[in-house]
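Fig. S4 source data, part A: sequence.
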Amino acid sequence: MQRSAPAKRPRDIRLDFFRGLCLFIIFIAHMYGNPWANWIPARFGFSDATEIFVFCSGMASAIAFATAFDRHGWLIGCGRVTYRIWQVYWAHVSMFVIAIALTIVTDQWITGGTGDYLRGLKMENLFNENAQSAMVGVVTLAWVPPYFDILPMYLVILCMLPVFLGIAQINFPAAYGLSILVWLGAQLGWLYVPSASWSDASWFFNPFGWQLVFFTGFSFMRGWLPAPKADSRLIWAAIIYVVVTMPLEWEPALLTFDSLMQTRQAIGPLIHKGHEGLLRFVHFLALAYLAYVAVGEGGRNLKGPVVRVVAKVGTQSLGVFMSGIILSFIAGPFLNVVGRDILTVTIANAGGIAMLIAIAYIVSWYKAAPWAKPVSKPSPSPAGADDAATASPVIARR
C-alpha cells in the first residue's frame, strides 16, 4: 500500500506578518539620515526589529528544517540546513558586492570621487593597504563591516542548529540550558567572533549571544516551550516594564534628564545590542507577549488587505531583506541630493516600501514556477462539429 504524502503545514499568519513588518523597519532604519527612523521601535525601547527578525527566523527554521530531521534523521537534516547555509552565504556575498559597486558609483557622481561614502560605510579598507586582507575577509567572513552583519550572524546560528536540535530531541532542557550557557559566555566576553585581521574588533552582532533569541523562537514553534496564556497579571507586568524602560531609550528624555543618561550608562552591558544583554532580551519577550495577546489565538485579529500585503512580504524574507538593504543604500544618497523635506522623505520611504512589496510578489510568482504547471487544454470538438457550426448560421450564433 502506497503511503500518502504528509499534509503540508499551513503558514502561520503571525509569523509572516511580523517578519514583513520587521523588514519594513530594517529598510527605514538603514537609510542614512532618514527622519522616519526616529519613530521605529528602537527609539522607544531596548529591543528593536533585529530581535523580531532573529526570533521569527528561529520559528521559521523550526518549520523548514525540523521536519527534515524528524522524517529523515540527523544526517539528512544536516544536509537540509547546510543547503540553506549555502544560499544565505551567497546572498550575503552578492549583496556586499552590489553595495560596494553602488557606493563607488555614488562617490563618483555625488562627491567627485572623494571616498566620503566609502568611509561613511566603513568600506575604505577595500581600497587602502588592507585591501587584500579585506577581500579575503569578505569571502571568508573574517571581515564583516557595519550594515552587513545580520546574515553572517544568522549563518553561525544555523551552524549551531543541528547540535541544538540533536540534543533537544534527546532532552530539551539540556539543549536550552546549553543555549543559555553559550549566551552567558557571550555576556562575559568569552565567546565572540573576531572581525578584521588589521584590528582587534569583533563582529558587532555576536552570534553566541543572539542564538538565545533564535532558539527561543525555534522552541516555541516546536512546542518545547509552551506558549503563555493571556493572563492579566502578565499583561500588566509586560506593559509596566515597557513603559518604565521607555525613557531610557527615548532621546529627548535622555538629553533632558542627566539621571536617565547616567542610569542608561550604568546598565549598559545589560542592554548591549551586540551580545543581546539580559534587559534587552526581557524587553523583547515583554513586547512579543503583548503582540501575541493582541493578535489573538492563531492570529485571528490579523485581517484585512494591509495585513495580507505585509504577510506576503514576510513570506519572502531573504529576498526582501537583501533588496531592502540595497534600496536603503540608494535612498540615502537620493535624500542627500534632493534634500530632506516632507515630500522627498515620504517619496524615499513610501517608494522603497512599495518596491519591497512588489519584489515580494515577484519572487513569490517565480517560486511558484507557473511555467512548470500543466496547461489545461480545451477538449477537442467532436468530428464534424466545426464544419457544422460553419455551415449553419443558427448553430454558429449559439
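Fig. S4 source data, part B ends here. The radius of gyration is 25 Å.
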